[in-house]
Design brief:
This protein is α+β, with helices and mostly antiparallel strands and about 400 residues long. Helices cover about 45% and strands about 20% of the residues.
Length: about 400
Amino acid sequence: MTFYDRLRKASFKGFEFSLSDESKEFGRDVVKHKILNASAPSYEDVGQKETSFTLEIAIGGNDNFLEDAQAFEALLSEKGSGRLVLPHDGEMTAVVTSARRRTTTKEIGIVYFTVTFDRDEEKNDTATVSTSTILKQRSNTSFNSALTDFTKSYRANVPDFVHNASLTEINGIATDLALAISRVKSDFIAPDFNVENTAVFADQIVSMFQGLLSFEAPVNYTIATQSASNTPTANQSLEIAKALIDVAGTAQIEEVAGATATQSLRSSNSQAIHVMAKVSALSAAADAVSYAEFTSKEEAITVRDDLLSDMGELRSSSGALGWNDSYISLGGLMAAVNDDINTGLGRLPSTALVQNNSVLSSLALAYRLYGHDLQNVVSKSDDLIKRNRVVHPSFIPIQDLEVLIDA
């Protein structure tokens, strides 16, 4: 059997036809935006493009070609999807999105149709779980994995000076944490750490970070409005996530060193504390992200990339240090972070940095950027103030400003 023998006859809803040309469109759905005074255009990736097929179809070759063409035209005009069979791509469920009919005096007896189909595969009836819920589950798994690895690495039966060094290390991390979250959570109190009991100490480190996550029920990714969300949960969770990413960056993992056995123990415990703190901080940051509402695509992408970069480095370090459970769970957590944030990117407004070259009021700048509609100018002026944390709306300083593209 030759290749041509294996090709299937083209048809739609059981109506067979001859193809003179076939094209397929696929890939990523990317929109290019330009804005006044922006240094470069921005590109908005709103997800995977729907697969579509544009077919050049010929109906004819017999005495009943007009009746066949009319029947095919009626078929294409029917509501709903149907079974489409193509020679190269096989069988699929598709819906007609556009159709055009033409005839020519040069070819009597043939009616040509140009038809575009979008793939419309049936939805799976099985229950789905939101990306936010999966992210919270992966965060909890990461915490539990870190507890397991910490108990294998940390040594509680050590001299007092090693305990004192461990207490200094963890109190320093707690101080950095309190400072980082002070703007959004001023009531933070670090535990009275018990460095002489491995299990208790590990639970205290985890609880210190998990205690920051006392939010309301997680949101399914909602559409952000033109200005930042004013709900305390959304605002606080995003600020805490950013603060936790910063704290994770301050906890440096050093190689175990020491001229004596006790010095080596001190170095080893210090390393375990810092790895535990970094895993806990980033796991908590991921959990906080599941509640967050971003104000723009650019903000969401920045948080995503910062979080994934830090997790990737930590995962490599964990694997090298033998924290095997954490190595595995961090991989799953990275995938969940990526899925959760990417799910909502297409529904967030785009922003760009523009150079403000003169001192203007927010209303004047909004008028210059967005046109003459009074209601739109007022709302965009309010967004400029909130988005750029402008102190005095009448005098926006000469600086780069973040402005909405999706006006």
